[in-house]
Amino acid sequence: MAVRQKRSISLPPELADAIDRAAEAEGTTVSGWLADTAAHRLRLDAGRRGIAEWERKNGNLTADELADGLARARAVLRRSSTVSKSA
């Protein structure tokens, strides 16, 4: 069994209700949904920091590089949603 740390949080009622609905729609628990969402946010933040560090060392990304990165990200997201829908 995975080790877990218990937390107590307070949320505005509308947000708590939206999280309940999202977790139910994904067939998971509120704890699982919050953990997945927090992990996703942390990955995004790490990616942003990585890009900023790269730009500090190499200069700003060009418009073409940004467009290529966006196209690659969209392709990955399309593949991910196809895999999760077929699972």
Task: List its salient traits.
76% helix; 87 residues; elongated; mainly alpha; 3 helices
Task: Please describe what this structure looks like.
The protein is mostly helical and 87 residues long. The chain has one domain. It has 3 helices and no strands. The radius of gyration is 18 Å and the shape is elongated. The two termini are 23 Å apart. The mean pLDDT is 91.
What are the SSEs and their pairings?
Blueprint: H1 13-25, H2 30-58, H3 63-86
Helix pairs in contact: 1-2
Alpha-carbon distance between the two ends: 23 Å
| Rg calculated over all Cα atoms | 18 Å
* Largest sheet data: none
**Count of helix runs:** 3
Number of domains: 1
